[in-house]
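Re-running the complex after MR caught last week's input typo. The corrected sequence lines follow. Everything else is unchanged.
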Amino acid sequence: MRETTEHAVVIVGGGPTGMMLGAELALAGVDALILERRPDQELDGSRAGGLHSRAIELLDQRGAAGPFLAAGYTAQIASFGETKLDMSDFPTRHPYGLALWQKHIERLMAEWIWELGVAVRYGQEVTGFSQDEAGVGVDLADGSRLRAAYLIGCDGGRSAIRKGAGIDFPGAEATKSTLVAEAEMTDKSGFGLHRGPLGVGGIGPMEGGETLKIVVPEARLESGDEPTLDQLRDALFVVHGTDYGVHSPTWISRFTDATRQAASYREGRVLLAGDAAHIHSPMGGQGIPLGMGDAVNLGWKLAQVVKGTSPAGLLDTYQAERHPATARSLDYTMALNSLSRVDPRTEALRDTVAGVAVMEEPRKHLAALQSGLDVHYDLGEGHPLLGRRVPDLDLIDADGPTTVFALLHRARPVLLNLGAAGAFEVDEWTDRVDLVDARYEGPWELPAIGEVDAPGAMLIRPDGHVAWVGNRDDASLAEAMATWFGPVRDGERVHG
Amino acid sequence: MAEHAGHDHAVAIAGGGPTGLMLAAELALAGVDVVVLERRPGQDIVGSRAGGLHSRTLEILDQRGVVDRFLAEGETAQAAMFGLTVLDMSDFPTRHPYALGLWQNQIERIMAEWVIELGVPIRYGCEATGFTQDDDGVDVTLAGGGLRAEYLVGCDGSRSLVRKEAGIDFPGWDASTSTLIAEVEMTEEPEYGSRHTPHGISGLQPMADGGPIRVIISEGELGPTEEPSLKELSDALVSVYGTDFGVHSPIWISRFTDATRHAASYRERRVLLAGDSAHIHYPTGGQGVQNGVYDAVNLGWKLAQVVNGTSPESLLDTYQAERHPITAASLRHTMAQTALLRPDPRSEALRATFAELLPMDEPRRHLAGIVSGLDIRYDLGGTHPMVGRRMPDLDIVTPDGPTRVYPLLHDARPLELDLTDYDGPLELPVIGEVEVPGTVSVRPDGYVAWAGDRDDASLTDALGPASPRPRRRG
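Corrected-run output:
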């Protein structure tokens, strides 16, 4: 019998999704281990380059947005077709996107989770796993074996965990491929964005130095994620009539517009998050934000189940909420793919779409969709806040001025009472839910929806989504508390 | 009718479809001697063809006092669409905030009856096979002889002989997809309704109880330009449904494509083009008949004034100057929908995303304005928003009592309207409410040539020194 190490949760994959999940579990006091195949956090290329507004908010809810904002620059980055979707008038503290290469995002996240005490083991590859009723055994390439209550696959589009769990990955096949590279060029006359018969590409400088970022569509659909310099030269030649003397590549990769979503996010004690659960073209920049959204939705639920305060059934709400929200983002990305085609009829359609997208209401609708600020989990009928993200309002509580997001830093549920102080008690849930009496005088405005009625009180989940809105006399509060934060033990009840 | 030395008619119109008939009516109302030359033996068309008149076309027919004839035989509905989304325009400021569902053979029959009442000869079974033009007129070659006219207008469809003989270029975009359309009998009860296929949309619809079945079916590959056969239709049915439902006895089978072309010029001296002969496109959105009618009412009064000698020939240049850009936009709008309606998953995703925007007021009104034709604006200069746009059919009071504006346009003459005492709201489609001008000068086609205060000197310019004196009402 080989020696096994026990962890509550083993996360396979230390990219943005895996690290965000690690942080959420650590904040909830759950022992989580991240296994990363790479020898360290370094990425060989810059990869994706940005966070949309809701992803910045997710970091802000944990008090962790500062270093990210300091390392990148904010800009209006959302666009639909050729129409910029300016969201500077949105009711959020972060009405913009953050331009920041993935390698920097990962470095900053790694620093953050190191501070939180999350264990990361680099150079570790999972070769297999098996689950039983009590847990999951995980086999590593070095021959060692781990055991965990839950195994989470955050291991990317080709996820070994997804495949090992036998989870289907249906969707739309790739129709085109694009090479992306970081290399030098002797001839720099090709700088700029290029729209040609094969699609959109571009050549531009990176952060200082001689290295350029090169994106070039391929004439035929190719596969494989390790293209050669010759293939890059060929593709450049086809599109530009020259390869611009490209040389010294530090990284060459290929992406396609294949779009797939896992049929199930959970198989027993094995769950999927991020690219392991959904892939799509990078157009629209949905990848990292979707993975972070998964992690923040799953983290607190998994923590409660691991700690035994909630039944395992709570995990079903992860897929019930995230699958439709992500399907919508995948549709949006595919819509952008369709709109980026180069043919006379698509050009005509781009004109029509541009005429519509600049209008006030469509602009807000599309910007809210692309930025992730419109995510709405179906938690039933009621106040418009129900199922939506809580806005980061300026509050005054017993200790003085604060903000809603500051109340969420510890990733604990918050019952926010904006009515008469002392109207609520949560004594049976004191160990699970923070009760905050506060005052707020300003308007209630939601992205793309506009002004809504001021709620008397609301129950905010650790992921920042509102689970209940009402007043002290509503019996539905106890039901919501039990649904989301676990049933009360014998003899306990909620006081309205 | 005026005398025309050496001419059999002032104007010969090749083609008696909706465009040619509408043009004939306009010319007849202006007192011009016009003849319609139609290849078919009668007005009947084989097959039901396109069906529908959009709001602006209904208004145009209302301007001539004949819209009720059409309304009586069809059904009005919210049928302005973008892609698969209906754009409800019931809140539009028009007396006809809807489209009229009516098959083209009914449209043509009603139009032909009207044109005949107006005294226009329609020569059926009479195909123009060529022409030669000189400084004074056009000699038109007919199968059984010929005739001479001052002007020849080709309303002879997409394969226009007049356009080809005039050497007018027809540039545009080749077809990327083709669709079979047919009316047939079937021995088996087919699967009625529409179905999305990998190639596009197909649909089967009964025409009437026990009558023929209308089939529309997208082809996997671009079909040849020849008329399709029953075998091709059967193959297409099998590829979608796995059976051809025992298809037999076709009344007609045709093929349409998304080829989009636009005549480089609408006029070659004394020869002009209107309707499909000047522009072809995919039938999505139902713009074909409308664009032809808009051409006809734009050209009709101008050609009449030139023939009647009240305006110089250069007035005809405004026909292309006004219509070409409007039609070019309409063609692009149709092409946009062809892209949106592609059957692949990414186009489907774009449809879903875009469909979320279309019910919003601003996009809905914007696009419904385009589809309905109510947003057409000819660039006639001017500062008032009414200039270049259609005159709304306002309720007004004249010395003769209460009336509407459109009855004042029934005889297709220019109209100067004093609105000093008009106190009702003045709302334009898509634009919204605008200031009521003191006077509007309305062209026979219903478009406002000038709007402002009566003592403004620019009014005379708008009417032109050679224009007939408009009557003043209001």
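None of the earlier attempt is carried over here. The mean pLDDT of chain A is 93. The radius of gyration of chain A is 24 Å.
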